[in-house]
Design goal:
Helix content of chain A: 40-55%
Strand order of the largest sheet of chain A: 2-7-1-8-9
InterPro entries (chains A, B): GK/Ca_channel_bsu (IPR008145), Guanylate_kin-like_dom (IPR008144), Guanylate_kinase (IPR017665), Guanylate_kinase_CS (IPR020590), P-loop_NTPase (IPR027417)
Largest sheet of chain A: 5 strands, parallel
CATH topology of one domain in chain A: Rossmann fold
CATH superfamily of one domain in chain A: P-loop containing nucleotide triphosphate hydrolases
Keywords (chains A, B): ATP-binding, Cytoplasm, Kinase, Nucleotide-binding, Transferase
Distance between the termini of chain A: 15 Å
Protein name (chains A, B): Guanylate kinase
Radius of gyration of chain A: 19 Å
Number of helices of chain A: 8
Oligomer: homodimer
Order of helices and strands of chain A: EHEEEHEEHEHEHHEHH
CATH class of one domain in chain A: Alpha Beta
Catalytic activity (chains A, B): GMP + ATP = GDP + ADP
CATH architecture of one domain in chain A: 3-Layer(aba) Sandwich
EC number (chains A, B): 2.7.4.8
Largest interface: A-B, 38 and 38 residues
């Protein structure tokens, strides 16, 4: 029996650097998981290639796919749709390969409902821990600025509870190393490994 | 507030190579956890140093420590006591440092009861996965030999259920790399990290 792959979801507040971290992961030769290319209705930017950076679709095509249930998650940003084609994800997992999604928090929430066993990683900006220092050393910023930053940080932390792991994006290399360690560890969890050994010994 | 350290317990069937893996971990410069030296009543072997390899004690001293509740776990093997002094473990964890124990399965069971939040890693021999091949390719070994190996493997698998992670000791370097990844990941678990961020933002 083929062991199913792991669905790895990287998300976090916008601007945290999810895309940069994802690109670094997939530029490394020893990365053994597959990247699920998103679908979008926005126009390709200079140098972007269909089927590499995104699957570019018209609004009509995208909405037809939504109706057909062909999207694992989708959301609309600034007038454009972004989503994850479900077939590629399912087929790749069934082949026993890990699939990596880099998506917005709203999409991650939708995926969590469909794949409760997925591996959900929340990328946080280092400002979240620098925040404490700023609050403590006061005076350098107005109370209003501090309050705004505090509230923004609190909102980010509220989103954490849907995730399994939290990685601070202080440096891209550090974040990538941590994400890779999380994936290695997840494959070694007793709950995942034990049934395999048990099945092994039933072959008799 | 000081974050408490993590109690890391490496165990597994005897002969699996726990000691070799532990020595390799502590020979690496980037290892950031503390090794808890065991206590024993057995005589020092050639080259073994008190307080480095073991704390060597007399039987009377050891039994007094048991009565005083000074051992986190202990067991008797071939007429000698082996155990883990509890004070060092507690003090080190309280300083926020990770403590690493390399102990027998019987001791690990005792530690699990006292530290349910510890990180328990079960080292398995590669023979467990080779076993399947041997069963499948039959004929090379007698049915009795296969049955004996099957039963031994089943007993090992029964012990797994108390552990959080299972690492196959195919090569010492691989096992060490996996154990280090597990420790990195464990520190990034949302349940561990979230309270820290929440406390951070309450400082106002």
């Amino acid at each position: 029996m083929q062991e199913k792959g792991l669905l790895i979801v990287l998300s976090g507040p916008s601007g945290v650097g999810k895309g940069t971290v994802r690109k670094e992961i997939f530029s490394q030769e020893d990365t053994a998981f597959e990247y699920s290319i998103s679908m979008t209705t926005r126009a390709p930017r200079q140098g972007e290639v269909n089927g590499v950076d995104y699957f570019f679709k018209t609004r009509e095509e995208f909405e037809a796919l939504i109706k057909q249930g062909k999207l694992l998650e989708y959301a609309e940003f600034v007038g454009n749709y972004y989503g994850t084609p479900v077939d590629y994800v399912q087929e790749t997992l069934n082949k026993g390969k890990d699939v990596f999604l880099e998506i917005e928090v709203e999409g991650a929430k939708q995926v969590r409902e469909k794949f409760p066993d997925g591996l959900f990683i929340f990328l946080v900006p280092p400002s979240l821990s620098e925040l404490k220092k700023r609050i403590v050393t006061r005076g350098t910023e107005s109370e209003e600025v501090i309050n705004n930053r505090m509230n923004a940080a609190k909102e980010e932390i509220e989103m954490m509870h849907l995730y399994d792991y939290v990685v601070e994006n202080d440096k891209v290399e550090n974040a990538v190393e941590k994400i890779k360690a999380i994936v290695i560890a997840e494959h070694l969890r007793r709950e995942r490994v034990e049934p395999k050994y048990k099945r092994m010994l039933e072959v008799n």
